[in-house]
Every structure is written in C-alpha cells, then in structure tokens.
Amino acid sequence: MYHFGQWRKNxxxxxxxxxxxxxxxxxxxxxxEHYFEQHTAYNLTARGPEANRRTSGxxxxxxxxxxxxxxxxxxxxxxxxxxxxKGIGAVEERGHxxxxxxxxxxxxGDQTAMVAAILQSRLARTCFDKNSFQxxxxxxHMECVAEMVSPLVTNAGHVxxxxxxxxxxxxxxxxxxxxxxxxxCTENDLCSDIYLKFxxxxxxxxxxxxIATFLENHIAECTAESYMLQWQRGHISNYxxxxxxxxxxxRSVNDLSQYPVFPWVISDYSSTQLDLLNPASFRDLSKPIGxxxxxxxxxxxxxxxxxxxxxxxxxxxxxxxxxxxFYLVRVAPEHMxxxxxxxxxxxxxxxxxxxxxxxxxxxxxxxxxxxIPEFYGSDSSFLKNLLGLNLGRRQGGGRVENVELxxxxxxPDDFLEKMRLALECQYVSEHLHEWIxxxxxxxQRGSEAVAAHNVFHPFTYEGxxxxxxxxxxxxxxxMLTQILExxxxxxxxxxxxxxxxxxxxxxxxxxxxxxxxxxxxxxxxEDLTEESKKMAWSNMNKLALxxxxxxxxxxxxxxxxxxNNVYFYSIAxxxxxxxxxGHDDAVSHICWRDDKLYTASWDxxxxxxxxxxxxxxxxxxxxxDLLAEFEHEAGVNTLDLSPAGTLxxxxxxxxxxxxxxxxxxxxxxxxxxxxxKIHQVAFSPDSRHILSVGEDSCLVVTDVQTGMxxxxxxxxxxxxCFCWDGNTVLSGGMSGDLSVWDLxxxxxxxxxxxxxGAVTCMWMNEQCSTIITGGVDKQIILWKPEY
Length: 787
Fold this sequence. Notes:
By secondary structure, the chain is an alpha+beta fold. Helix 5 runs antiparallel to helix 6 and helix 8 (321-328) packs antiparallel against helix 9 (333-339).
C-alpha cells in the first residue's frame, strides 16, 4: 500500500462525461506518452475535514505524468505532469518503490531515450502469459513485443501467434482482458480489428510470414491488382473496393490520422427527391474537393504561384483526425475532448447539417474534407445524439442535437440507404476510377497532381518527413503533433491510370437475319452469356492486352504481355496464379491447344510449351516444359493453328507469312505478302487457305498447299482483326466500324458502326451465334445476329 503526499495545483479535472462513460483511459495520456503500471494509493490533502482528507484509489505511473483515479466515481481523476513536480516520494511496501522510474524521468527531463529504455526494460522482464490461451491445445509459434494502435492511443505489450489465434497482451494490463483474435476475417470487415506497431522490422516480417503461411491455402491474394480485377468484373461492390484500397494504403479505423477516406458522391442536398439517373445529382469525381469551385480554385492557384518553396495548393487536408471526429463526435465524444483539450468545438462549427457541410466544402476557404465509411454503412448512430451530449447552442439559440438531413431523406436510416444506392449506381461506377486516381493513384503526386490541382503540404505525403532523424524530443513531438492534426495522404497504390469499371452498355437486338443488322444487346452484366463474361474478364489491369484466352476448363485466363511474360489468372480467386517468363521481348500472341501453349514474341521466336500438371487450375505453381522453338528473321506479331492442330501460321512485324509443320522446326512455305506489320493470320475452316491483314490495309488470301497468293483486297483503311468462314469476312478497322466483305467480289457489302476508336480484337464462338469486339475506346461489345 502506498500513500501519496501533497499534490501541486497543476491538476487535470476530467469532465463529467468521462466519469459517466469510463474512468481511467489511455486518452488521458499525451502524445508519445506510455502507461507503465498502477498501484493502490491514497490521496492525502492538507485541508478540509479529516474524514475527507484521505481518498483511496489507484495510481497510474506514466512516462510524462502520474495519474490518480479515486475509487469514488464522483471525484475527478487527477493528473500531474512530471516536469511540474518538485519532488516525489512514497512509503514503500514489500521493498518496491513505484516512483523509482518516475523520479528518473523527472531528473532526466523526460528524455525520449530514457522513456524508450524503461519501456524496453519492462518488456524484456516480462513475457506473454500463456495461461490466457483460449484453448489448452494451442501451440505458440512466436512471440515479440509491439504496440497496439487504437484511435489517438498506442499501448505497448506482447504479441503471440499460435496455430489458432493472434494475441496481444498489454504490458500494463490495460485493458484488463486479453485480446485473442481469430485470424480469419469476413469480406465486409472494416479493414482490421487489431493494428500492431512493431519495434523490429524483422519481427514484423516474421509474424507476417507465420500468418501468411498459415493462410496460404485459405484466402485469396490481397493485392491492389487482384481487388481491381474483382471490382472491374462486378464481383465486389464500390464500397468493398474502397475499403480494400484504404486497407492496402495503410488506412485504419484504429488510427484517426490515417482513417479510411471515402468520397462525396452526391451534390444535391436540397431537393425533395433524389434523382440517381440525373448526372447533375453527382459530384465531379475527376476533381479534388478544392477544385470543384472554379472561383475558389483561382484564388488558391494565385496564392500557390506566389508561394515560396515548398508549394502546396491547400492549407488543410481532405482527411485528418479533426475531420473524422467532426463527423463522429456524437458517438466518440471522448476522442474529441482528448483532441481538443477537454472541450467541444463551437456549436456553429459542429457537424450540424449534411447540406451545410457540403456547401462549406464547396465554398469555404480552408475546408476540403471528404467523407468517411460510416456515410455508406448501416449504423446511423453517428447522425443522432443518442448520448444526450451537451454540444452547445448555435447563434440562433437552438441546441446542437441530431444532424439535419437533406429533404430527400426521411430519417437517418433512409439517408444512409440512399447514400449506399448512390455509391453503387451506374454514374458513380463509371467515374469512381477518376477519384481513385486522385487519392490512391497516379494523380496523387508529381506533375499529374499539379495538373489535377491535387497538391497538399509535403508533410502529408509518405516519406515527406523523417521523424526518426529528429533528435530533439520537443521538436519531434511538435512535428508528430503537426502531422497528426494536419492529416496524411494515403500510400500510393497505382502509378498508371486506373481502368474504368466494366459496366453494361448494350442495346436491344434487331430482328433481322443478316450479319449486317447485328446490334449490341441490352442486358444486365450478370445476364450476359458466358462468352461475354470471359471476354470482359480479359480486360486485365496494367497490361497492354496483347493477347488473351480462356482455358477449356473455364477456370483460368491466360494473358500475354508486353513485359515479356505470360500471366495465368485464377477466376475463382481473382488473382494472378502463375507467370511464365519464356521470351526476351514482348509476347505478342498466344494460343492453347491440347494442353500445349503456343507463344509468339517480338524476340523473333514462336515457342510451344507443355504444361506439367494434372490440373493447372489448382492453387499451385505450374511447371512448363519447352517442346519446340520456331525461329524467324523478325519479331512475330501473330500466329494461328490449323483446325487439326498440325499446321502453324505466323505473321511478322516485317510482313512475312510463314507456314510450319508442328512436327518440324523448318518452314514449309514463306511469303512476304504485306508491306508492313501483319496484324492477324487465320486458317479457313477447311485448312485450305490462310487470310492475313496488315498495316498496308490489305486483306491477303494464301493457298496452304502451294504457298501462293490467291487474292489481295485493298481496303480503304487499315483492318486490325477479323473472323471468317472461308469466303465472308467480318473485320474491324481503325475507324471503329465493322465491315462485312465478300472475298469473291472483293467488296464491302455492309458496314456496321461499332466503336469510337480502332477495333483491336474480335472473337466468335463455334456456332457463329455470338461475336465480341473490343476497341481502344475501352469498350467490349457483345453482338448476336437474330434469325
């Protein structure tokens, strides 16, 4: 038992709210302050009746202060800063003095090094208590020290990972209960349940290794690219995709300075009805908040141009602890009080109205904040003053109570439902990639950020300041405080433009039998045929779509790339499963037949690979053996196999068509039939002829047996791709039109408007009942002739 002597006047009276909601909280600590331990104690005062001079409670020993928490909940918690103490003493019990470390800190001026030394010493003297395992059969794999991060608080302790759970055990037993977590998460989780900060990169990586090894066969690959593919295909919602991106960019609900950021999508907060089919109802997602008002932007740019280094356009950020708590003050008042020294903001500056907040974001000189995930969730409590907080009175005399909603929302739940509908609607789905470019992508930094008017203070960017290099503890705290209050830009995830989501753009079929009357169909994305789904999925991220195919089991998409590789993507897991690195230059074309992969490359070779695996779609690495290699004198741009699979036709960048016998590496026939690059070659269904199209705008028919030219048709424009039945040709040109050719008359018999740019690829099923085209306009169109 310890008795605490005379307190000085520098005390902290914790507000009545804290006494009602909870007693001691780590929110009472200063930035970078640590809580070491607690002891039973008495607070002895020199004045007042003798019966009231002795107050029992607990004493908390911290790195910058000592805190006394009375047992009587009516009495306030008291906090004394060590730097204000003239002397510290105690009556020892059991030979231990709780103030030994506090005295050291006080004498050394609260040096950061001493705090760290004491913290590490305490952690080294203790270990994880394995009696807290949830199951007696659990086997521990590793243990290390770390800090658990929660809003405005970090707490040191021990981490232990077993074959079942991940545990965090606080050094100071606060909170008293242990934190044992299942490592599996559901798809809709808000990013994470526990956020750990490690002292050692090696220990962090080792812990990650254990978790990753354990989960290797249980979860899909969690990368920006894999989530992008799932989002593009419509397998995850806009809301889920934004949560994943925030998580990958180190945004967490446990860190207010890096809280998940979501966009304002609606711009209409005054109408009685919300029209989600009207583009005017939405915010321009291609611009940051600060650039939505052109008049305000001009003023900001004028200041930016006259500003000395470092330049920045906006004096505040779109996400900061203050902005997060601005929205959440009604459900997290203790955090707001901690951030603002025990006071709420002025009543007129509180989150009073959704419409007023949006208006201020458009017109205010320093307000550029975005939204948080709660605006698109299902819990509307942050919009209601359910705790009955006294948040003050506005200038008009009214009390600050529930948030005022737009006229189109009948109540908070209805408001959130309409916000969710807006986030998932067609307009937002078509433009969300533009906002991602600003927040997580290539417009976040550099010249693209300047051009997009998206430049913030250098302190907000990852790597903008190295706090570890600051030796002076006061300067370091000041810098951390500035970063904490100003906000931080998410980690950059993409360095190239983010692709647009694949959304349905189809029209009703016309009831005419001819191919010329084909027109796209108007069906929902989920109602498309399996063929259209396959083609839509081929819009792989970050890869120029040189060539793509679906394996016969419909589980794997194979994609060749200009980075010299061939990639295998799992449809079930939505991730890259394997990579074949078999060429020294771009892989221009691929083909699959009888478990063999044929690859054409600009390194002047065509190679045949044999898959050495019983099931290539299994979640394992696949080995490919090289069976044959066909050498050319120029880069190979295209290839095709005869229907029987015995002959191979190739076309080069210099216009040479070569016919090969698969069993022999020597060419059967070779003919320079184009004056430029050959875009595509294809056998006729009877294998008697080969059709080729090239940069010279010619369609050339070659006889397979003799290797002689049969016909050359000159087109008005360059044709990039085609399908044919041996006589009639459907081709796609540079203008975006589809042309139907009669080779016997060498004439175009029909033209069909299709794409707004060059048609780059075309596919037809075996029944000739479905055709899919893709173009440089980033559109994929499904065509169905009707009979």
